[in-house]
Amino acid sequence: MKKSLVHSLYMLLLLSFLCLPAGCGLTGGQDRPGEEQEAFLKEEAEQPLSEGPLWSDPGSLKAVIISDLHFTKDQSLYHLLIPGLAEAERITDALTEEVIGLHPDVLIMTGDNTNSGDPADAEALAGKLQKVREAGVSIILIPGNHDYDQMDAAAFEKTYFDLLDPVDRDPSSLSYTAVIKDVVFLAMDDSAMRPGGQGEFSPESMQWLEDQLEAYQGHTVIFLSHHNVLYGFGEKNSASHLIRNPDPASLLTEKGVRLALTGHMHFQYITERDGLWEILSGMPFSGNHLMGHLAAGRSGLVYYASPMDLHTYDRSLEEDLARLDQESADSMELVFSGILDEEGLKGTRKLEVMALLRRFLSYNKEGTLADHIEELRSDPAYDRMLDALRDYNYGPWIQAMIEATRYPAARLRLTW
Known about the structure:
This protein has a domain at 52-312 and 411-415: Metallo-dependent phosphatases (Purple Acid Phosphatase, chain A, domain 2), CATH 3.60.21. The termini are far apart. It has helices at 5-15, 35-43, 53-56, 88-102, 119-134, 153-160, 203-215, 248-254, 310-313, 315-342, 347-366, 373-377, 382-389, 394-404; strands at residues 61-66, 106-110, 138-142, 168-169, 176-180, 183-187, 220-224, 259-262, 269-273, 276-280, 290-296, 300-307, 411-415. 46% of the residues are buried. 38% of the residues lie in helices and 16% in strands. Strand 9 (269-273) and strand 10 (276-280) form a beta hairpin. The protein is built from 14 helices and 13 strands.
């Protein structure tokens, strides 16, 4: 691995993504989209996902989904890598106001709700979520590894569980079951083996999960965890983000579960294996500041992710956040430029690689990478870019993303 000031800055950059290990693969999915999803992608232009009968059906469930909020009241935190940390409270206020305005049946949060589990941050966030609850929106919330940095499981339960409506609880962890409009949510605590550690269920929690899957056989079941169930399965160096229990995805598939909602990686991504789909929700404080929208009914479900509506809920924040995002992008540009200089790329050859990197990062941020794979791979600078970044963790990750991504990251339709 290269040793330099530029690389030191680069490694700091990696922290904002949590896991970009060399050789980190993506999915155990099919070589091409399934027929159902392929047909949906062809039809989508005729009817936007934000429209259609599931949204107008009063009997279908509507949800807003986020992950990795990393809420904090500490404005002194270094925010260049995660721009929204500088305006964490304003963004969270805008987000909760937008959720109240949309008035879904449920707000789902899949972990790392605070940046460090600081009790003051957790109490402040719980107060904001209480306003959502009082507006008639149910809340489903699970812990992530960051939630346990300064808080144990008992404190987490005391802070958040009054906001929740579990119909069943795992005696050995904070995992629970919630049922909203006949949709069953298995909200799993995957840090119970070692709070703050990597994702893993205890044998007792695995047995509880199996019992719940058996009890709700035939129902629409959605699985929730902070760490991932498919992303990186079967690949080396995936332990930092993949649930460590032996292939929980096979158990879910066997019991008829079609959808898992996870997070942890801070970017939006969708993958599939053997009929089980996983949606990794992006981070509201960075990227394109996405939030997910899901409608589920008797026939199936639709999902799309879109940027927060800051223009409506805090126009001055929209302007401030655009400035912070640009500062972050400029910082990333300097890091990559320095790496290419170290690798001896100059003049037109360097400019072409930088242009390709910008496109890749933009597509990944938007969740549209799958729509541009051939464009990126056919670029004359593609091999040059990979060669230049090969000795840096980002290079193998970019290659894996481009070569293994199959599905649009911000839209999905399933039929039961």
